[in-house]
Design goal:
Order of helices and strands: EHEEHEEHEEEHHHEEEHHEH
Helix content: 25-40%
Strand content: 15-25%
Number of helices: 9
């Protein structure tokens, strides 16, 4: 078996219903992890649904899906990330040709077709302060943090990445087994950065493949409100990331 897809749904039954027709024909098996009631509606017969008896963090759910599948590659897919035809094949072809590519991500676009900055640099102290405080009103990150978001780059060929949004990532199972999968200690944010950082430290490459295109209706909740439960989750995620990787405090 080559490619297993894992979809974690936290009450996103409508989004899952739109996603599956585009996803299922492109992979060898699909598992949907239903984290709460209302996470899954009608699904194709070949799709397996794992019903959680209680709600779990995103990373823990991804690990459940990884453990329930057997593909050489595991594709993590958010319900709001829909691949265009051939996108998954492009990611797999690249990974096949690059045996040290542990994580391969696509070009992402907003629903209106415009480019979405999903390939990013590892966070720095200064940049994080701007993005996560009212300073971002004075210095809008998507305008001023050009290096972090690679805003001046539109590669047409595959390029290395520090990390990419976890909404749609092809992961080599060998890499996942080596680094211990996703860190379930993250409540909801930074688990994708941590995954890519640990992969990097273990010698695995991360690549952005622009020929693979995924339409991502990215909510970006913490970019829109300063004070919410999501803000707290993000802060606790940042604290965990720094405890695990204190050397990042030197990255100003």
């Amino acid at each position: 078996m080559r490619v297993s897809a894992v979809v974690v749904s936290h009450g996103h039954a409508a989004e899952v219903e739109r996603l599956l027709p585009a996803l299922v024909p492109e992979v060898d098996e699909t598992v949907v992890v239903a984290n709460v009631i209302g996470s899954v509606g009608v699904t194709p017969p070949e799709v397996r649904v794992l019903e959680n008896p209680r709600s779990l963090p995103l990373a823990a759910n991804v690990n459940l899906g990884i453990g329930a599948t057997g593909g050489e590659y595991v594709l993590n897919v958010n319900p709001d990330a829909i691949p265009e035809p051939g996108a998954i094949a492009a990611l797999v072809d690249f990974a096949d040709a690059h045996p040290r590519a542990g994580i391969v991500g696509p070009q992402m676009r907003w629903p209106d077709g415009t480019w979405q900055p999903s390939r990013r640099r590892f966070p720095t102290v200064r940049g994080t302060i701007v993005r996560r405080t009212p300073l971002r009103r004075l210095r809008p990150p998507y305008e001023t943090q050009r290096s972090h978001y690679h805003l001046d780059e539109r590669p047409t060929e595959p390029v290395p990445a520090d990390w990419m949004l976890g909404a749609f990532l092809l992961q080599r199972r060998e890499m996942l087994e080596e680094i211990g999968g996703w860190d379930a200690g993250f409540r909801h944010y930074l688990e994708d950065i941590d995954l890519c950082y640990r992969a990097m430290r273990a010698g695995w490459e991360r690549w952005y493949v622009p020929d693979a295109v995924v339409v991502h209706d990215y909510a970006a909740v913490i970019d829109k409100r300063f004070l919410s439960r999501h803000t707290l989750w993000h802060l606790t995620g940042m604290a965990r990331f720094v405890r695990k990787h204190p050397e990042r405090l030197l990255a100003l």
